[in-house]
Amino acid sequence: MACNSFCAVSIEGWQKKKKKKKKKKKKKKKKKKKKKKKKKKKKKKKKEEEEEEEEEEEEEEEEEEEEEEEEEEEEEEEEEEEEKEEDGIYYAPSVKLLAAYRSYIDSLPIIDQPEIFGLHENANIAFQMNETHTLIGTVLEVQPRLSADDSALSNDDIAYDLAEFILSRVEEKIDIELADRSLFEVDSKGRQNSLTTVLCQEVDRFNKMLKVIKTSLENLKKAIKGFVVMSEQLENVYFALINNKTIYDSRAYGDGVFAWRQIFSRRWGPLQA
Q1: pTM for the whole thing?
Q2: Cβ distance 247 to 260 under 8 Å?
Q3: Per the database record, which ranges form the Dynein heavy chain C-terminal domain (predicted)?
Q4: Whether the Cβ atoms of residue 136 and residue 126 lie closer than 8 Å to each other
């Protein structure tokens, strides 16, 4: 009996211990769950706080951008007002009616100043000179070719005589093969003197120019006599001779036909030598 009672007591003690252990485990689990919940809450709070901070930063950035845009608009308006004060003529009118726009356009000057296009004042002088030359050239071109006085020379006679005068003084072509052989010598590396290359190029240019002069003036003489048709190119040479303009503008230098002829001879002389 004593043994049975002892066994019963020990079993009860063991069961109590087991229950205590279970309770402790449950408490630990509850504590862990509470800790996890707290951590989750903290994380949520952090996320919410971060999101709020980001939203606040975005709002601040948007406000700053809006302020900058407003400042830029104010600066542009101030610049426009300054331009209006400085110029008082050219500005974008702040009107809505079509009639108001038309009245503003009608108030603009007919001739614009070069400063509007970012040009110097001298650009206006160059423009006026070009317009004057064009006007004078047009007036001269429509002048009659025949003179009213029979004793005076006509324009055809003047152009014909000038063409003959220039042809009588036109130089002959240069044959580059007749040049000194020392100019074409090469060094030990087979290189030719660079000045010889330039010389050959200049001689070639002048020979082409001489050909153009001779053929155009000879054809002009024939056209004046009526043997060939007066082309646009020959007509330009014709008026250049009569009005003392530079012939062959694309290849010429100097101002006036006789100045051009003298400069051509001066440049041709050293090449012949």
Answers
A1: 0.43
A2: yes
A3: 130-246
A4: no
